[in-house]
């Protein structure tokens, strides 16, 4: 997949009713590698992978044109992209229709993701502890953000965070000067997406999410949260309701081991984790 393929890939995702803009494709393409399936009519399938250090990878954007499905294209794309990731532990997100196919490649269910979205007009107030404040991040915080993100996922995140900071705004919670949590906001699809959100506990995660929801009050906002986050009812009360079916996280290999002291409460994206 080259940069020249992205407009056609974008059209393919639109045909599949995916919300990605061309700019969203460019963002993820700059971080990863991709393969396209094409015939005389043009591109009819895509898949991408992202390498997270020497031990981990993720796969996503596996799309096949509606009139070319059930022809083995998705499986062939998967076979080829797995050669790129090699022996790395590999993660992906999928709906229930594709679970059986991915199981044939050695993937097993590992968790769930819930997509919440909507328009927030009124945000709850979430108090912080004494000595804490929400502040914008600066370039000097990039190392601290990457460290928190790595601890919360169990995978290296410095490259992803560096690229994210070129397209997103981010705020952090610091505790007497120590950065302990952060959340990013960027344009995506029909509006904005909040994520990642990394914090030591759910109350600080709520404070960060409420901050960005308030900043974008009246706009369409999306957030993808792990099924174990405990945020679902609170997000729904705020106007960010769960849509579509639950997304299954699948893994091939030894799953990454996040630290218990910090949690990823929202994903950067379903492709990048």
From TrEMBL:
Gene3D superfamilies: 3.40.630.30, 3.40.630.90. PROSITE patterns: GNAT. It holds the Pfam family Acetyltransf_18. Keywords: Transferase. The keyword Endoplasmic reticulum does not apply. The keyword Chaperone does not apply. Residues 1-135 form the N-acetyltransferase domain. GO terms for molecular function: acyltransferase activity, transferring groups other than amino-acyl groups. CDD domains: NAT_SF. PANTHER family: BLL4206 PROTEIN (PTHR47237:SF2), SLL0310 PROTEIN (PTHR47237). This is GNAT family N-acetyltransferase. It comes from Pseudoduganella rivuli.
């Amino acid at each position: 997949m080259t940069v020249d393929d992205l407009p056609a890939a974008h059209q393919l995702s639109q045909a599949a009713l995916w919300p990605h803009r061309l700019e969203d494709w460019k963002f993820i393409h700059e971080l990863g590698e991709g393969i396209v399936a094409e015939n005389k009519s043009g591109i009819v399938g895509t898949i991408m992978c992202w390498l997270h250090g020497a031990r981990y990878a993720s796969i996503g954007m596996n799309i096949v044109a509606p009139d070319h499905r059930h022809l083995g294209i998705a499986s062939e794309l998967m076979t080829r992209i797995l050669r790129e990731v090699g022996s790395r532990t590999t993660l992906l997100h999928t709906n229930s229709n594709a679970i059986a196919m991915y199981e044939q490649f050695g993937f097993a269910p590992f968790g769930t993701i819930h997509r919440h979205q909507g328009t927030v007009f009124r945000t709850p107030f979430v108090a912080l502890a004494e000595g804490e404040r929400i502040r914008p991040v600066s370039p000097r915080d990039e190392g601290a953000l990457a460290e928190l993100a790595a601890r919360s996922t169990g995978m290296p995140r410095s490259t992803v965070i560096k690229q994210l900071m070129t397209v997103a705004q981010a705020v952090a919670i610091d505790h007497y000067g120590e950065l302990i949590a952060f959340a990013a906001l960027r344009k995506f699809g029909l509006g904005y997406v909040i994520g990642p959100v990394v914090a030591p506990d759910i109350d600080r995660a709520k404070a960060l999410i409420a901050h960005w929801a308030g900043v974008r009050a009246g706009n369409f906002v999306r957030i993808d949260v792990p099924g174990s986050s405990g945020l679902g009812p609170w997000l729904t009360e705020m106007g960010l309701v769960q849509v579509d079916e639950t997304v299954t996280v699948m893994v091939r290999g030894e799953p990454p081991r996040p630290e218990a002291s910090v949690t990823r409460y929202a994903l950067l994206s379903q492709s990048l984790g």
